[in-house]
Amino acid sequence: LSGLYIADAMKTFGGIRRLSLSNNNLKSKSGEYIGDELINNPEYNMIELDFKGNRLEEYGLRRMIYAATTNNYLKILNLGIISDFGLDLISQELINLKLTRLTFQEDETKPFSEKAKEQFVKALKSCIENYEDFNVQKIKANLISEDERIEQYCAERKNQIKEFKKFKLRNKALAQKLLVKNVIKNIEGKKSADKVAVK
To answer: What span, in angstroms and rounded, lies between the C-alpha atoms of 18 and 7?
Structure first.
């Protein structure tokens, strides 16, 4: 019921910019009610929402992640303790999130499977490859070895992009030089032709 009361307060009073609900033993319904309020009102100006230590479970997580793709103001979100299901959901919606920071915790009683972690890493790589401005630092996954792999990949990708940009600049400069040479050649050719006596 606490989630419902909070959602009602959001609707009634509005203007709640930052809300910390950490370690309150909140479950799925809290994520559903609060998520629905943010989804139904995409201009609701809540900036930060913290569910640290809570387990929003399947439907609550689904609504909160969807809210993070639709609400225009929510920028900092802690989803609390999640399972493989939650990690898969994040992987699927990662590129659509409007957040500047996303945090979540692994369930110590049921750690992430290798498959779920691989899918998450794959989703991050895809974001890095396809969106130059994607900031991997906004994801605080606490996956230890995976974090290191992501950081390394991100660094490699940045170097690739940097080298590619240099290559494009070199090609552009070369093309400009060739254009100038061709223009000069054409002008000189025209001058030579003008000097030829016509009989």
So the answer is: 14
121-161 pLDDT, tens per residue? 888 878 776 665 566 555 665 554 455 566 666 666 667 76
Closest C-alpha among 62, 70, 59 to residue 29: 59
| Size (the chain), residues | 199
Q: Over the range 142-181, which residues count as b (16 or more CB within 10 Å of their CB) and which as e?
A: ebeebeeebeebbeebeeeeeeeeeeeeeeeeeeeeeeee
Task: List the one residue out of 52, 21, 24 whose CA is nearest residue 34.
Answer: 21
pTM of the model: 0.71
Query: What are the pLDDT digits (tens) for 43-67?
Result: 999 999 999 999 999 999 999 999 9
φ, ψ for residue 36, nearest 5 deg? -60, -40
The residue type found at 121 is V
The number of helices, as runs of H, and strands, as runs of E, in the chain is 6, 5
Structure tokens that stand for 176 in this block: 């400009």
| 89: number of Cβ within 10 Å | 19
